[in-house]
Amino acid sequence: MRHRKTFGISGISSDGGMNWATTEAWLSALNAANYLGYSDWRLPHTLPVNGTAYNYNMSLDGSTDWAENISAPGSAYPGATGSEMAYMFYNNLHSRMWVGYYVHGDDGPFENIRWYYWSETPYGLDPDNAMWGFGSGQSAVPKYRNDFHAWVVFDGDVGTVPIPGAVWLLSPGLIGLLGLKRKILG
Amino acid sequence: MGGSSLGVLTASRLSRNTAAIGFDMRLTALGRENLKEGQAGVYLGGCLMLHITKGKGDRGMKSRMVGLAVAALVLAMVGTSQAVLIDRGGGLIYDTVLNITWLQDASLASSENLWNKRH
Lengths: 186, 119
What we know:
Chain A is an alpha+beta fold and 186 residues long. Chain A is built from 3 helices and 7 strands; from the N terminus they run αββαβββββα.
């Protein structure tokens, strides 16, 4: 058991599952709390796999946006980055789908990975649905489902490059040497 | 948890999918499906190393040096090509391909810290 981060939002299961509305409220609270020093957290987005327009016909080779193996190596659009969750699942975590079943790759550097996730993208043909699954492939999901999870991201890299500790350790010595030089020359 | 492992696979599906999954796992073992640019060099470099070090005497020594250089180059390439996910510390993982930073905890709102739990 650990201290869960609900940020005062109710309606979240002990497992972290929540419906779409709760997820949006939780995300707002996360940003208001400036979690880890960032206030631009968002859910991963689901853009068209072909880079131009959504195709909601079902496919198994990742050639459409309601599909298994989107962005997977060997799929119709290998390495496609439109669906961030798909890229995570099939490329970063090396997982695969086989007609409704999955072959799990690895967890990479991540922890606490769940099976169903929301993306921030509504389903184009029905606003009561939002996109993504995870282990079940990518599809539209009714927003009332409360067993989906939130895996948050923000754009870009961390903002600051930390100064190595060694520089701080060396600083007094360098200042001392400068002082010594002045003394000798003076 | 490294390499591929069989997730959900029922007995009825097993025979139908075994060949394909076996193929997939074989590729994973080889590392081919995880290959980024440069990683192919691991296998190319390995082959070169084996081939070149067959030489004898001075020629063999020179060949071994070349082999070592190739191996070092390949290792350097592997080091850079694997830098797709960079651990920035503090629970943040930078994804160099998507240019986004993921939270390391994939279910922050959960009160359970479970590894590999999917449902």
